[in-house]
Amino acid sequence: MFLGFTFGRRIDRPAYKDMNPFTYPLDNYTLYGGNPFLRPTFSYHTEFSYTL
């Protein structure tokens, strides 16, 4: 019998344009500005397995 265990961690960081604090025009009626206080997202993955 074989027992297995895996563990993973993933970090998803926001794109630069989403963090850019300056505003810039998208078109004549829309300005876009990012949020400099965005934080990365952490995901954890665990898996247990066995084989007979």
Commentary on this structure:
With 52 residues, this protein is mainly beta. The strands form two sheets. Strands 1-4 form a two-stranded antiparallel ribbon. A two-stranded antiparallel sheet has the order 2-3. It is rod-shaped, with a radius of gyration of 21 Å. The relative contact order is 0.48. The chain has one domain (7-44). 8% of the residues lie in helices and 60% in strands. Strand 2 (23-27) and strand 3 (30-33) form a beta hairpin. The model has no long low-confidence stretch (mean pLDDT 93).
List the defining traits of the structure above.
mainly beta, 52 residues, rod-shaped, two-stranded antiparallel ribbon, 60% strand, 4 strands
Dominant shape: rod-shaped
Indicate the percent of residues in helices. Answer: under 10%
| Domain tally | 1
Question: What is the succession of H and E elements?
Answer: EHEEE
Number of helices: 1
- Strand adjacency order, main sheet: 1-4
- Distance separating the two termini: 5 Å
Short description:
This protein is mainly beta and 52 residues long. It has one helix at 16-19, and strands spanning 2-12, 23-27, 30-33, 41-51.
Write the topology of this structure.
Layout: E1 2-12, H1 16-19, E2 23-27, E3 30-33, E4 41-51
Antiparallel strand pairs: 1-4, 2-3
